[in-house]
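We recall that each integer encodes one residue's backbone shape. We quote one record:
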Amino acid sequence: MTNSSNIFSALHLAQEQIADLESQLLKRKLRATQSPCDTRALVDGRELRAFCSNDYLGLANHPALVKALAEGGQKYGVGSGASHLISGHSVAHELLETQLASFQKQHIPSARALFFSTGYLSNLTAITAFARLAPQGNTSIYSAKLNHASLIDGVRLASAQTQASVTLFDHTQIDSLNGLLKIDQRPLKIIVTDGVFSMDGDKAPMKELLKLAEQHDALLLVDDAHGFGVLGKHGHGILEQDNICSDRIIYIGTLGKAAGVSGAFVCAQETFIEWLVQKGRPFIYSTATPPAIAHTLSKSLEMIKGDEGANRRTQLNKLIRIWQDEMQFSQWEKVSSYTAIQPVILGSNANALLASKLLDEAGYWIPAIRPPTVANGSARLRITFSANHSEADLRQLIATLKAIEHQVLEKAKHE
């Protein structure tokens, strides 16, 4: 405990702000797992049925990937030692980038890929670097309102660095975006969107957005964090799902979700990737991800595009259909999502926290999602499915949620 006589102004402010978060039921807490990522998690000595990870294909603890990581460590060691442009770029990175580019060749004809340590880093790099293609004040960025925090921060940083104009748009109302683009005279326009929106689970209208990008000579940057590996016949993502192709697309995929490992990548026309290598500051000045991780990811990509990946996507889609058909709430709001993300909107922070607590007591791990991650008044349970969940697992969850909704609503009546 800090002695009150030693509290200086910055520490006092931090304590006040944290206390304020707690009073609003917005304080977050870390929970440490004691087991590998899977549909069963050991937390605080208890086994919980996890419906909250982004391990959509259930690959994070797959024996073949565990073996590949060990092989990569034996072959390349455990660290890269430097940034990619110094001495940290390995043949393992080269092979992975070639494989990633091949996933998008039919959708970005002259595709090249660049590997990053995190999705956050890839989004910051891409948005800030491409905003600098035009002179100061000559860039317009159109960003979907419900974009992930990494896209939002990338847009803010790009605006601060380049004096780019920033406009938010509703991805469900594309006509308004068309009107804005039509009167924009700036030489560089960039449309920025999630592929699958992480809190609602709905997809961006990619065909319509690409049509606008072509009509108004804009770049279209899509963060397909929750689509790569899952969407499309071969798991190539939202571009495959929607069967679109263009060299003006900047495609960003995450490798720590459906791919089951870690990292992310940017895939785009080869000249654009060369620009990132030359001007993408987070890429230039970050130590490269250990080659053993890249080696493991190469194995993951083989699985995603093979029969095992196809079977796992089939299982995942079966679970989504069961949920949409069989989960009926009395008052809580279920979203019509046909992705692995299935939010249940409860409204108040108190109700979301209570529901999460009751689920925990029933043996489930589904955290409450509250502002600022979602809008005020839309606190929710963010339920996610994995191919490792069984139909029985899901139906047990459905029965449990119906009972917990009744408990929460009854409690609210008596308050």
Notes: The longest helix spans residues 391-413. The mean pLDDT is 95. The longest strand covers residues 188-194.
